Amino acid sequence: MKELYFDFDGKRKIVEVEKNVWEFFFEGMNVPARIYGSENIIKPLLNPKQKEWSALRQLYNVSTLPGLEKYVLAMADIHPGYGFPIGGVAAFNMDGWIMVGGVGFDINCGVRTLKTNLKLEDVIPYKEVLAQKLFENVPAGLGRKGFLKVSMKEMDEILVEGAQWIVNKGFGLKSDLKFIEENGKILGANPNVVSQKAKQRGLNQIGTLGSGNHYLEVQYVDKIFDSVAAEKYGLFEGQIVVSIHCGSRGLGHQVGSDYLKIMSEAMRKYNMSIIDKELVGAPIKSKEGQDYLAAVRAASNAAFANRQMIAHLTRKVFVDVFNIKDEDVKTLYEVAHNTAKIEKHIIDGEEKELLVHRKGSTRAFFDVDVPEEYEGVGHPMPVGGTMGTASYILRGTKKAMFETFGSGIHGAGREKSRVQSKKEYKAESIVKNLSSKGIIVKGHSKSGIAEEAPGAYKDVEEVVNAVHDSGINVKVARLKPLIVIKG
Q1: 367: in domain
Q2: Which of 18, 314, 394, 422 has the fewest CB atoms below 10 angstroms from its CB?
Q3: Are the beta carbons of 165 and 298 closer than 8 angstroms?
Q4: Chain segment 31-79, per-residue pLDDT in tens
Q5: Domain range holding 243?
Q6: How far apart (Å, rounded) are the C-alpha atoms in residues 361 and 21?
Q7: Which positions are catalytic?
């Protein structure tokens, strides 16, 4: 059993309790903190350059909140976030806490992966044409508007119906819905608890990628690791797939901003105190807690609608370029990674209703809420890497259902801040370097490309192997990039 130490107002011990599973627990914590990662992932967390901007300190802060069950968790892609670390998971009983920091501002940011019947050799001759058409037809970039214009009344409908609203309007296939988390529509959404300002910000953004770390990436299946799961998923080596990473855009960000103020007032109202003001929240059962949960569900439905529209636009480009049918571009799966959801999990042998916050962590369910086509292996987990390395399709396990509330990694995880990345990397050099490797990068912003340089992220292989070896997520397929569209 390995032991390492970190400075937390004094020397504190973190222990590897099993392979790639580390824990710490000391005075002031209501539950232990558990991190899934290799020693190479853990060590950089022990000595952060800025003591207060520490993922371990943030895990500790979360662990002091009321109503927590079992552990606070961090996946191998952990890095500091707003109050709550990215890659973090916290599950509260219904007498516990709900907080903006545990969801993030890009509510229901997530990834949809589409699978095609095309092979690598089919696409290579048309790569430049495909890249240009995707760049022209899928809106991306800060403030970019989509072609779908909706009224305020229609926005309210989208907040309730999610991706189903988009499909009912003729954008996409009904079969898409079966392979989206919650079938693309989370129940319990209430547009009345979403501000007019938030709705206004979202009116013209349905079907847009946005900026930051969001992307559309044409990829090919480089290697299959789990042949049984791959066969169920319909994946094969050399196959062309497309991954779409984005969220609820301005609407979700405004919901987060609005409820930070509401939660701050609730803290005073209920005379509650917390160790870190960025963890501001409210009791789940309070009016403020219930309103925020309903607003998160509404913003989540907006994100499902957004990705459905982008998937539709992407499908149309492939149909046009390769003269294939709509049905030849299928949804493999779509999963979210910034959520707060009520779920049932086994705690000490008893099934309990919990509110699970996942921030930069995906659902990784194995034996519940899984499409029948994927029974026995769990649903796919699309995991983003970097535009110069690789992405992955993973799957959950029974162990994850028991240990992590059915959760897993969402990506490689940042190693350098966006500010630092822009200082170290230049967009032109990145584009040129990736072009020499056969990867086309088209971005609407030079700074956006620099921020997302491959070197700004952890080694995706190290991150994926850490959770694979721990047994909570299993490698199914590695995806290599061909075309990257950035905001």
Answers
A1: yes
A2: 18
A3: no
A4: 999 999 999 999 999 987 766 679 999 999 999 999 999 999 999 999 9
A5: 110-486
A6: 16
A7: 410
- CA angle in degrees (0–180, nearest 5) for 406-409-410: 115
SS (HEC) of the chain: CCEEEEECCCEEEEEEEECCEEEECCCCCCCCEEEECCHHHHHHHHCCCCCCCCHHHHHHHHHCCCCEEEEEEEEEEEECCCCCCEEEEEEEECCCEEECCCCCCCCCCEEEEEEEEEEHHHHHHHHHHHHHHHHHHCCCCCCCCCCCCCCHHHHHHHHHHCHHHHHHCCCCCHHHHHCEHHHHCCCCCCHHHCCHHHHHHHCCCCCCCCCCCCEEEEEEEEEECCHHHHHHHCCCCCEEEEEEEECCHHHHHHHHHHHHHHHHHHHHHCCCCCCCHHHCEEECCCHHHHHHHHHHHHHHHHHHHHHHHHHHHHHHHHHHHHCCCHHHEEEEEEEECEEEEEEEEEECCEEEEEEEEEECEEECCCCCCCCHHHCCCCCEEEEECCCCCCEEEEEECHHHHHHCCCEEECECCECCCHHHHHHHCCHHHHHHHHHHCCCEEEECCHHHHHHCCHHHECCHHHHHHHHHHHCCEEEEEEEEEEEEEEC
- d(C-alpha 29, C-alpha 27), whole Å: 6
pLDDT, one tens digit per residue, over 229-280 is 999 999 999 999 999 999 999 999 999 999 999 999 999 999 999 999 999 9
What is the chain's length? Answer: 487
Taking the C-alpha atoms of residue 95 and residue 325, their distance in angstroms, rounded to an integer, is 51
Domains: count for the chain: 1
> What's the whole-model pTM score?
0.96
With respect to residue 103, please indicate whether it lies within any of the assigned structural domains: no
Please check whether residue 9 lies inside any domain of the structure.
no
Specify the CATH number for the domain of residue 120: 3.90.1860.10
